[in-house]
Amino acid sequence: MAITAAAVKELRERTGAGMMDCKKALTANDGDMQKAIDWLREKGIAKAAKKSGRIAAEGAVAAYVSEDGKTGVLLEVNCETDFTANNENFRALEDKIIKYIAAKKPADLDALNAGKIEGKTVADLVTEATATIGEKISIRRFVCYTTKGKLTTYIHMGGKIGVLVELTGGTAELGKDVAMQIAAANPLAVDRAGVDASELEHEKEVLRKQALEEGKPANIVEKMVLGRINKFYKEVCLIEQIFVKDNEKTVKDILGGEKVVKFTRYQLGEGIEKKETDFAAEVAAQAGM
Question: Residue 193, by phi and psi: left (phi above 0), alpha (psi -120 to 50) or beta?
C-alpha cells in the first residue's frame, strides 16, 4: 500500500525515529501504525523516544573558529549526565555539528536540525546518538559570527562555560584576556548603550524601593538611584568592569585602541530546571518500604 507523508510524520513524532526508518517500518507493516511502532522498538530505533521526557541539563558548550579566522561558533549540546558529556561519541557529534554550523551558517535551530551531514539530517543524527548513547541528547542553542576583525573563544572547565567574542583587532593574548573576563565576570553588555532597557528599568525600580525602605526623603531618592545605577553599570558593562587579572585597570584600559564589537557567553544548563532526586526515598520506594 502507499505510505503517506502524514503517516511518516506521525510515526516520527511518536517514536523519534528518522523519516526513512519510519517509512520502512510502515511499509513493512502495511501502514499499521501500532505495528510500525513495535517494529521500530524491536530494532532499537525507537529507543530514543522513551527518553524524550527526561531532563537534559548536562552536556558541554563548545567553540570553534574557522581556519581563516573569519567565522566563529558557540554551541551548547545537552545530555543527562557528566559521564555522557565526556563520551567520545557525544564529543564527536558536537564536533560535527559545530563545523556544519560554521560552514552552512543556518539561520536558527529549525534550519540546523533540517540540515544534512553525511546524508542524514542533524535531527536524525541527534536521535541516533540518543539511542546509541542511551541518554536524551538535544541541541539547545548556538550562535555564529562572521567578521573582518578578530574572533576569540574560551572554554572553561571542559565546557561548563563558553565564550565567543569579536574584537576589531588586537593580539591573540588580548582576545584571550577579554574572553576570560567575560567568562569570569558575566557582563550583560559591552557598554551602557547595550544594556537592555527593561533590565535597566527593573534595576532602577529595585534601587528606588531600597532607598525608600532606608527612609530617604522622596526628593533625593532619584539622585541616590542615579548614583547606584552608575555602580550597576560598572558591574554589568564589560568595558567598565575591573580587569580580573589586574584590579588597577578596567577592561577599557587593556583594550587600548581596539573595541569589543560583541560577545556571547553560554553557561551550561542555565535556565534549565534540574530534577532533584531524593535518593533515600527512591531506594525506599524500590524496596517497598
Answer: alpha
